[in-house]
Inverse folding.
């Protein structure tokens, strides 16, 4: 087996550690005489739960992408060396081996070998070279290998970029400054993080003020798994995820008595927790021995900063000092975020292993998971013989993807495409995919929205390459992405609920029930429309959605409401009523996200949203409190399914009876906990009604609203109880981060159909 060549053989095996070890031993020792194994490298990759044996044609073609590995957390052997005073890499922040360390984040070209990484500039010392060249060494061809003699060097900079301390001194000084409550920008694996003491209310507040981030929760790093247990209630699945080579941020239940600053995650019962994933992080956390806020080094929704010079400029006024090093990062790779949905489905056709996987949901896909490809069902792969397809994603939480034969490579999370930095990262990611995979797209897929930056880019690129563009409807892409993950074929009922997506009628969709295949969809049902009051303005002010909903329910009398919980004055209502009467700048929407906003506003849970999803989260958390308080059977609000007058959708899910019953409850003085719980149950029952009328056995749940673990569980349980097979996301995000996968498979299927006609 060749090492580091494009034509190397790539073998993926799955199983328990002892089985895999036996396989590796026998592969080397018992290979037939005609086979010569020159060298072997192993790499831990996320399990795909494949069964059976197959040889993939792509391997014969020697597609270079197969050997682009993701970044992996420091392994146990390296940690032992890090703590061993007799080892020559004792306390060296950049030690790695074949099993761990940076890969994708320092790759500059293919094939993956040292000269094609950002380590190319570091000449190996004789000791490192000996390890690198010895077949029996665990660092045999470990490309980013380094030691204190020949490798990168750590130093601490002040705000001007002047060196204050170096190496061990830099570490100790950074720790001391964090102890004092200062904000330290740490150059991590895939970019800068901002660190601050998570137990100091004042320090965390200062970070919020400087970052201009009012409420959006911060993630927290803990020194050890034991330490996380002191602050969070962890399930075994959550623990193994935290300790996995991907080492993502895991959204865990915070203990009520957790001694953390409230400003870390205001009003949030969950906490994004992670463990150290690099030697540098291990060294810092071992000295700090306390929870530390480690949030992305950026402003708002920009991609993270990767370069130390850039950090001085872009994080100026945010960080007090900069802990940097001279190992360049080749692309921003943020920390991944994963949620374990704790209620395992009651009965499922799938195997036990699959069930476990179904409970894990990636909300932000980056470090550790990227650039691992999503494998498609063979039949789809056969249809996509037309050549590589590039998909440029949506607008928020953008990712891009490249489909080639039977696989789709998704880029890391890039952020919201409204800033210059995000636009640059987006262009680099598009370029990366083509360059690293050595594939030029024959087709480009984008969102149907004519004004998305990504759509404009797709058109430009398509023109320069003289290839067709396939616009894909937003919610169709959501559904297709979930289908692709589960290798589903044929037609499904796809339930795509999110904030906003451009519909085929030019309206803002977001509460959709589609009968969909990869190739096409029909809008089977959707939420009853209401006004998106003031367009974008409605996203930040949930009261606007509430006013628009009440307008549909009661018209002018909305102005004289008698709801003490609704934070709206008569004047505000009169103003919004005037807007509603005119309809100016207020397109029609079927957005489920805005319906959640309506509930958040009417119950008084959220009057102002400083980040996307904040109001919906407040509704979810209140409902979860109802069940925690022992609320057993909650009666859902009534929701009506009526035939639609509109030509493009068959059924309309009328939420008015629901809001009407909710108003009665509010007037009776019921708690928001009960009201939001009844809302969730009502939605789940509504889904079952639609699914029964649609009559398709397979139901796909997708879109940003299904990041809500409670909603996902309620809908799943009720559907499964009456015999539906239910599919939700586990490999790509249900939010717009998964759109590029869906766009790619839809475009590939559409084009192959045209060709065969
Ligand atoms: Zn290692
Ligand atoms: Zn060395
Ligand atoms: Fe969406």
């Amino acid at each position: 087996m060749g090492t580091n060549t494009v034509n190397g053989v790539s073998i993926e095996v799955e199983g328990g550690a002892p089985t895999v070890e036996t396989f590796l031993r026998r592969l080397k020792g018992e290979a037939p005489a005609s086979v010569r194994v020159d060298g072997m490298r192993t790499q831990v990759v996320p399990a795909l739960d494949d069964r059976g044996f197959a040889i993939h044609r792509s391997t014969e073609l020697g597609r270079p992408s197969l050997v682009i590995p993701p970044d992996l957390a420091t392994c146990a052997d390296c940690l032992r060396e890090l703590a061993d005073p007799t080892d020559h890499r004792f306390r060296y922040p950049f030690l790695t081996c074949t099993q761990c360390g940076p890969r994708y984040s320092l790759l500059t070209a293919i094939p993956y070998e040292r000269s094609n990484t950002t380590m190319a500039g570091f000449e190996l010392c004789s000791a490192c070279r000996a390890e690198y060249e010895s077949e029996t060494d665990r660092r045999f061809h470990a490309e980013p290998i380094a030691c204190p003699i020949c490798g990168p060097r750590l130093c601490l900079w002040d705000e001007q970029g002047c060196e204050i301390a170096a190496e061990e001194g830099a570490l100790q000084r950074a720790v001391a400054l964090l102890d004092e409550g200062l904000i330290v920008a740490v150059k991590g694996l895939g970019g800068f993080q901002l660190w601050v003491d998570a137990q100091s209310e004042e320090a965390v507040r200062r970070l919020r003020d400087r970052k201009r981030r009012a409420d959006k929760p911060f993630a927290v790093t803990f020194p050890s798994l034991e330490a996380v247990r002191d602050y969070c209630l962890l399930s075994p699945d959550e623990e193994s995820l935290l300790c996995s080579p991907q080492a993502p941020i895991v959204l865990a239940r915070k203990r009520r008595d957790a001694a953390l600053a409230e400003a870390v995650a205001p009003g949030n019962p969950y906490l994004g927790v992670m463990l150290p994933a690099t030697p540098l992080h291990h060294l810092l956390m071992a000295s700090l021995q306390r929870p530390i806020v480690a949030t992305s080094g950026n402003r708002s929704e920009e991609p993270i900063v990767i370069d130390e010079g850039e950090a001085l400029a872009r994080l100026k006024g945010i960080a007090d000092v900069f802990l940097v090093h001279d190992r360049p990062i080749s692309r921003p790779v943020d920390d991944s975020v994963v949620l374990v949905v704790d209620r395992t489905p009651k009965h499922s056709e799938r195997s036990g292993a699959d069930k476990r996987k179904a409970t894990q949901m990636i909300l932000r896909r980056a470090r550790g998971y990227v650039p691992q490809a999503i494998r498609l069902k063979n039949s789809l792969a056969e249809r996509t013989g037309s050549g590589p397809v590039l998909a440029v994603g949506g607008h928020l939480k953008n990712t891009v993807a490249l489909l080639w034969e039977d696989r789709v490579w998704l880029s890391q999370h890039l952020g919201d495409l409204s800033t210059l930095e995000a636009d640059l990262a987006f262009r680099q990611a598009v370029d990366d995919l083509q360059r690293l995979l050595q594939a030029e797209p024959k087709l480009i897929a984008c969102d149907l929205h004519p004004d998305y930056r990504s759509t404009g880019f797709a058109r430009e690129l398509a023109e320069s390459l003289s290839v067709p563009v396939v616009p894909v409807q937003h919610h169709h892409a959501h559904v297709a992405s979930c289908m692709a993950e589960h290798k589903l074929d044929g037609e499904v009922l796809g339930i795509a609920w999110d904030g906003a997506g451009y519909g085929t009628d030019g309206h803002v969709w977001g509460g959709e029930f589609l009968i969909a295949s990869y190739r096409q969809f029909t809008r089977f049902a959707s939420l009853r429309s209401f006004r998106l009051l003031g367009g974008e303005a409605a996203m930040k002010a949930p009261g606007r959605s509430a006013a628009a909903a009440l307008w549909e329910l009661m018209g002018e009398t909305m102005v004289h409401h008698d709801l003490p919980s609704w934070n709206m004055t008569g004047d505000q209502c009169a103003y919004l009523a005037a807007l509603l009467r005119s309809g100016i700048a207020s397109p029609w929407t079927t957005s489920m996200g805005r319906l959640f906003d309506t509930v958040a506003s009417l119950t008084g849970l959220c009057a102002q949203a400083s980040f996307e999803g904040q109001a919906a989260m407040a509704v979810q958390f209140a409902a979860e409190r109802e069940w925690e308080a022992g609320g057993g059977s909650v009666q859902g609000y009534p929701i009506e399914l009526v035939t639609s007058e509109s030509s493009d959708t068959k059924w309309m899910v009328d939420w008015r009876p629901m809001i009407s019953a909710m108003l009665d409850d509010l007037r009776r003085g019921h708690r928001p906990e009960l009201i939001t719980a009844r809302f969730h149950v009502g939605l789940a029952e509504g889904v079952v009604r639609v699914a029964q009328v649609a009559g398709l056995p397979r139901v796909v749940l997708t879109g940003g609203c299904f990041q809500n673990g409670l909603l996902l569980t309620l809908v799943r349980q009720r559907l499964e109880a009456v015999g539906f097979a239910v599919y939700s996301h586990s490999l790509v995000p249900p939010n717009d981060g998964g759109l590029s996968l869906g766009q790619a498979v839809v475009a590939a299927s559409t084009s192959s159909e045209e060709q065969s006609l």
